[in-house]
Amino acid sequence: AKVLEIARRLSRGGDLRTDPQEEEEEGCRRHREPLEVFCKEDGALLCAICRESRSHRAHTVLPLPDVVREFKGQIQAGLQTLKGHRDKLLEIREAEMRRSW
């Protein structure tokens, strides 16, 4: 749910630091319909009406559950990389502290 909320906020050009209570109500701003798919070309969440519009008809779209799964995978991979870097930095710091003593 958190990943989906972040994707929605980013697709609207939102700032991750803003309070979710300040965000406009969820859904398409233009059509007031629920957001159902993610347009890969534009990086935006779309309602069914926007999806069928000329501007998105030829674009690649993914259903939201697929987008959430993809984002989760990317976030987990990024976290693993960061943990590896952190562990390496801690080892270097420990070695430097021992050497300085």
UniProtKB/TrEMBL annotation:
Keyword Ligase appears in the UniProt entry: yes
Start and end residues of each B box-type domain: 23-64
Listed name of the protein: TRI41 ligase
GO molecular function, one term: zinc ion binding
Annotated gene: Trim41_0
Species, as recorded: Picathartes gymnocephalus
SUPFAM superfamilies reported for this sequence: B-box zinc-binding domain
Keywords in alphabetical order: Ligase, Metal-binding, Zinc, Zinc-finger
InterPro entries: TRIM/RBCC, Znf_B-box
